[in-house]
Amino acid sequence: MKTHKVVLFYPPYAGKPLSPPAGLLALAAPLLEAGFQPALVDGSIAADFADAVVRETAGALCLGISLLTGPMIRTALEVARRVRRAHPDLPIIFGGWHPSLVPAQTLQSDLVDVVVRGQGELTLLEIVERLRDGKNLDGVLGTSQKPGGRVVHHPERPVENVNNLPAPAYHLADVDAYQQACGARRLGYPSSVGCPYACNYCTDMVFYKRRFNAYRAERVVSEVTELVERYRLDEVVFLDSNFPVDIHRAVEIARGFVASKVRFRWRFQASTDFLSRMSDEEVSLLAESGVVHMGFGTESASQEVLALMNKKHQRLNEMFETARKSAQAGIKVTFNLIFGYPGETEADRLETLRIMSDVARQYANVTFSPNIFTPYPGLPIWPQLKELGVREPQSLEEWADLPLGKNVLPWLQGEELRRLQRMLEFFLWNDYLRNGGSHLPWLGDRARLALGTPLRWRLRNGRFGYPWELWVARTAARLVTRRSLLTGQELSHTMEDVC
Prior knowledge:
Layout: E1 5-10, H1 22-33, E2 37-42, H2 49-56, E3 62-66, H3 72-86, E4 92-95, H4 97-101, H5 103-106, E5 114-116, H6 121-132, E6 143-145, E7 152-153, H7 175-182, E8 186-189, E9 192-193, H8 204-208, E10 213-214, H9 217-231, E11 235-238, H10 247-260, E12 265-270, H11 272-277, H12 280-289, E13 291-299, H13 303-308, H14 316-329, E14 332-339, H15 346-362, E15 366-372, H16 382-387, H17 396-399, H18 414-434, H19 445-461, H20 468-476, E16 482-483, E17 490-492, H21 495-498
Parallel strand pairs: 1-2, 1-3, 3-4, 4-5, 8-11, 11-12, 12-13, 13-14, 14-15
Antiparallel strand pairs: 5-6, 6-7, 9-10, 16-17
Helix pairs in contact: 1-6, 9-10, 10-12, 12-14, 15-18, 18-19
């Protein structure tokens, strides 16, 4: 006899886990309210996650798997295959970013019965209610299915105001286990979803259709401070795509945290145009409320490339203003950089590195995370990419081989790629010396000056031959080539990881 159990699985990803998977906790909350029994398995902390999923799905109503593009897909398919062998009649549902962006292709797999597209809380609830009652799933809004082998996309489910949804089921997360895995007592908290902009390289605008859907400020203050006290959190990472879209709301949240007298660190990501619109006093209020890091998708300092990216809302002066205001408030920031975007020239790259070096020279609180443009599914520019020779993956398995930063760009190969790698090494080595060479305490100020002066000359003039400074760098230090935009933490130390 079937129980009311619903199993939700989040495949592991590279690196330490950030925090409990907020998506699964959000999906679990309406199920609990309706009397179901969600069982969560997070592959990032469960050593035997495949066995656990197979064990938990015995007698369950269904298995739901949430995943992103990249290596998570391979693990999701492996686990689904084991569950299919153990429980042949159990419905397997895929959801999350990747299946939502390419639902028909996802359903090509024999291991996937249903795709939940977009906001999934109410869609999944309707699915499990029908399964419990022995009804078919025909007509469930927000789903793609394949009855009789024919793919059917049911209409979109109307977007639900997130304030009408229950708080994620945080009590289902083992905060102690995540602290042991990641070394920090923290929680990811999505106070909003969506971003109003339509950047051509970003899947967010495809997924959320440029809607900014946010909790009210008073709800954020109440929930976050209660979570901090209940779980003795040191840090909360806001998972919003662009936290300060509503500047008044952002200020009210910071003011509420200060008034609560509950002390904790928090971090978020944003676009420089919103942060630069805030007054110096408002940014200082962010710091007073506990903000220690902000991540910004600056991507390029070339106005031509920004136009190609459809980032006309971003201006160079706002990058400097963001750095200035955050430095004055004592908040660290990470600027993300994207290289290899279609239409970008070497002159554009040099302009970006020159301007970013100038930002770094003026403001010591800024670090950088360079990446190679990754063509993810659903991007509006895929027709252009195909014309330029980029091959779009044709199956889940092929998408599994496309982690963030993997270079599949035909126009960035051979000598041009090696030259870009060298340019980035010079840039990162210069930034490392600017920050005092923290891993080289024996390197004095005069030595740093001696090494830094020719580096800056190279970046200004685009001269990268005979790289004796890099020979020194490669033997003396591990350069941070990629950082988390959310936390600013180091993610990789080799140029191969970037390029």
